[in-house]
Amino acid sequence: MDIQEKIGPLESIEAVIVRLPFVSPFGISTYTWTVKDALLLRFESGGITAWGECVADPDPFYFYETIGTDLVIIKEFLLPLLDPGITIAELMKRFAHVRGHGMAKATIENGLLDLAAKRKGVPLHVLLGFPPKKIPSGISIGLQESKEALVAAVEEAVAKRYHRVKMKVKRGQDVEWVAAVRERFPDYPLMVDANGDYTLDDLPRLKQLDAFGLMMIEQPLSYTDIYLHSFLQREMKTAVCLDESIHSLADAASAIALGSCRIINIKQGRVGGLAESLRIAKYGSDHGIGIWSGGMDETGIGRAVNIHLQTAEGFSLPGDTSETSRYFHEDIADPPVVLDPDGFIAIPAGPGIGVRVDPDKLKRHTIHAERLR
Ligand code: OSB
Ligand code: MG
């Protein structure tokens, strides 16, 4: 998928870092976050404001990129390649000279796509070439203090009609915790995410998870691995889903060729943007791989991007897009994501990403701002 829109004139590009306190801490096997820090790029052009949200955390505990490193990469290596006369696709080709740093590249790509869609007066999903549809919801429940708290969180999600529930697991907090949820909800679509906490030495333990009819186990082995997951997938009945290991279409193709997974979690930022996401979704689904959109606890900007992306061909499973109110007391963008009575999510209406950044809320939550161009 190549984006043929010209970048066009830009009056200014600004970097803004916001900090939004989480309603409750979000814990995975590697770390627990209590606030959401997000790097945003604001593009101004001919009276239009467009936004790109970087999905990197302030720390390298989920992924190697951080807000700090991405801001440097954006300033020193990516923005100097930006020329108003070229297309977004040509810019992404130039970006290939910079190794890795897909989250930094995606931030610029996302912002330029929002701008291009707003110039045309069409929603982002239309610019990407996909008709509207209702987006199924999914929720990612962080590690909990007790099994009772976990079951209570799942009960709340089921009452909201989330289409599937993901629970985080780690070594020592897995089989019995899944069993507790399964006792209460024997058939609800349920999956687990280990964020790379296991090794093949844990195979006997991991195989016990096969008893629970899980939709998948996400990233059981190291964030660096593709190959060893192919052994695990052959040994397990449960589908393996890769998240951290997949940074590009080439990674996805390797994983598929090796039989390392049956499902791929696409986080558009982690794979370098929306264009690469569409390529992976198409390639994966053509090869019988289940595809869904992950999340990075984004503000309303990134959350909207993920919703538009899920209109695309190949997205066959509910993603990690859940209601804004479970993350933040106050977001910077309106309207918030809410579920309808059947647990579906509406695409934000209007041109571009379809959400509006509220200047007062933005100001309240800004911890850093600098003009880049
Ligand atoms: O592994 O999918 C993950 C959040 C932060 C870092 C890693 C992950 C997650 C989530 C939350 O699971 C997804 C979301 O609710 O946006
Ligand atoms: Mg994950």
Molecular structure report:
The chain is of the alpha/beta class. It has twelve helices and 15 strands. Helix 1 (67-78) crosses helix 3. Bound molecules: 2-succinylbenzoate and magnesium ion. 2-succinylbenzoate is lined by residues 28, 62, 140, 193, 195, 243, 294-297, 320, 322.
Topology:
Layout: E1 12-27, E2 32-45, E3 48-54, H1 67-78, H2 88-95, H3 102-120, H4 124-128, E4 135-136, E5 139-141, H5 147-159, E6 165-168, H6 175-184, E7 190-193, H7 203-208, E8 217-218, H8 227-235, E9 240-242, H9 249-258, E10 263-266, H10 274-286, E11 290-293, H11 300-309, E12 333-334, E13 344-345, E14 356-357, H12 359-365, E15 366-371
Parallel strand pairs: 5-6, 6-7, 7-8, 8-9, 9-10, 10-11
Antiparallel strand pairs: 1-2, 1-15, 2-3, 4-13, 12-14
What share of residues is helical? 25-40%
Give the beta-strand count: 15
Separate helix tally: 12
- Apparent shape: globular
Q: N-to-C terminal Cα separation, in Å?
A: 28 Å
Query: Strand arrangement, largest sheet?
Result: 5-6-7-8-9-10-11
Named once each, the bound ligands are:
2-succinylbenzoate, magnesium ion
Biggest pleated-sheet summary = 7 strands, parallel
Q: How much strand content do the residues show?
A: 15-25%
Broad structural category: alpha/beta
Order of helices and strands: EEEHHHHEEHEHEHEHEHEHEHEEEHE
Low-confidence stretches: none
* Average residue-wise pLDDT: 97
The whole-angstrom Rg is 20 Å
